[in-house]
Amino acid sequence: MADAGGWRPPRPCEAYRAEWTLCRSAGHLLHHYYVHGERPACEQWRRDLASCREWEKRRSAEAQRSLCESERARVQATRKHALVWTLRQSPPADWHLPLPQEEKDQ
Q1: In the structure, how many helices (H) and strands (E) does the chain have?
Q2: d(Cα 58, Cα 1) in Å, to the nearest integer?
Q3: C-alpha span between 73 and 82 (Å, rounded)
Q4: How far is Cα 9 from Cα 56, in angstroms, rounded to an integer?
Q5: Which of 62, 65, 67, 105 is most buried by its number of CB atoms within 10 A?
Q6: How far is Cα 51 from Cα 35, in angstroms, rounded to an integer?
Q7: What DSSP string describes 44-75?
Q8: DSSP summary character for residue 10
Q9: Residue 103 neighbours by CB distance under 10 Å
Q10: How many CB atoms are located within 10 Å of the residue 73 CB?
Q11: pTM assigned to the model
Q12: By C-alpha distance, which of 75, 96, 102 is closest to 11?
């Protein structure tokens, strides 16, 4: 990270507030409970919002560290899932041929 004078939070504080509000909404609660079988954990969004506001008011090094760690953890969590499909390096050799069902129709 750059020095404290030039550093800015990864997201605007309004984005953390919007995520926290969405996480606590009834629609999100029902969807998350239906998909995962448990209530969503919204505490991290609240902590991030508080850290962002702390950074804006006092330029606290602790708030900066907290936001950086939280964003790193969020990025790591999205990268931990493996791809479902195997990516191809080139198209199949017979990609240009008509499909079997097209042959029957003619």
Answers
A1: 5, 0
A2: 18
A3: 17
A4: 9
A5: 67
A6: 30
A7: HHHHHHHHHHHHHHH--HHHHHHHHHHHHHHH
A8: S
A9: 9
A10: 10
A11: 0.68
A12: 75
- Helix, strand, coil percentages, rounded to 5, for the chain: 60, 0, 40
Dihedral, CA of residue 26, residue 27, residue 32 and residue 34, to nearest 10: 100
- How many whole angstroms separate alpha carbon 69 and alpha carbon 47? 12
Structural contact between residues 60 and 4, judged by C-beta atoms closer than 8 angstroms? no
Can you read off the two tokens belonging to residue 86? 């195997």
- CA atoms of 103 and 100, how far apart (whole Å): 5
Contact 52, 88 (CB under 8 A): no
> Per the structure block, which two tokens stand in for 16?
């953390």
In contact, 55 and 9? CB cutoff 8 Å: yes
Hey, what are 68's tokens? 């950086």
Give me 57's structure tokens: 């008011």
Residues across the chain:
106
Q: Does 4 score more than 90 pLDDT?
A: no
